[in-house]
Backbone:
């Protein structure tokens, strides 16, 4: 039987390390959390937590073909999990951290179960959210993640307390870093030499 969902509220600009370490411990014990990003709250677990990935898909009611994204702490971390050429690297460097999701060819570091089976790609993000950046600094691997959009809804959840009330039964922890926006990230496909806009969101697309 799963323990009651922990609710950890931190300062959005200078999150307290002692509180973040509680969340780190939960993630290290194969926990699933809700955490803030610049585009609403997201669900996350550690990269090698295959059971956590199943739980995330169950909460969102996603099938196995739906690609989950890797939330990386910085550009160097991202380049471990994607094949990034010089042109793509310069483009990413000028846009990240920011409200973007990039689709890139997956490297060998990405478990095959997480890659798009036909294209061998993976979605990656580097968020400007201070709370999440501090959390990621405790790990050498990214979080496996997807936006916390409940079935039947068009936008992600944006308030930690509401998430605890409505989704807490399915989570191990809610990391409340304050209100987050709800406009989605801009998705850019960079599997070839030129960036291709997949979805226009917060981030401005530049060819």
Residues:
């Amino acid at each position: 039987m799963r323990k009651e969902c922990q609710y950890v509220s931190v300062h959005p600009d200078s999150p307290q390390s002692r509180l973040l370490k509680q969340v780190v411990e939960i993630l290290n014990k194969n926990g699933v959390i809700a955490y803030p990003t610049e585009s609403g709250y997201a669900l996350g677990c550690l990269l090698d937590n295959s059971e956590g990935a199943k739980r995330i898909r169950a909460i969102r009611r996603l099938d196995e073909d739906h690609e989950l994204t890797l939330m990386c702490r910085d550009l160097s971390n991202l380049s471990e999990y994607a094949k990034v050429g010089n042109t793509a690297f310069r483009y990413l460097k000028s846009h990240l951290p920011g409200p973007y999701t990039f689709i890139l060819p997956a490297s060998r570091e990405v478990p095959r179960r997480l890659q798009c089976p036909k294209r061998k790609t993976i979605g990656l993000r580097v968020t400007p959210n201070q709370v999440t950046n501090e959390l990621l600094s405790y790990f050498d691997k990214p979080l496996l993640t997807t936006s916390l959009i409940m079935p039947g809804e068009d936008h992600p959840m944006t308030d930690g307390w509401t998430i605890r009330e409505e989704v807490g039964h399915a989570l191990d922890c809610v990391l409340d870093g304050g209100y987050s926006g709800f406009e989605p990230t801009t998705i850019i496909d960079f599997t070839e030499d030129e960036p291709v806009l997949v979805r226009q969101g917060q981030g401005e697309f530049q060819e």
Q: What stands out?
A: The beta strands are 6-9, 33-37, 40-46, 69-71, 100-105, 121-125, 143-147, 173-176, 186-189, 196-199. The CA atoms of residues 13 and 57 lie 30 Å apart.
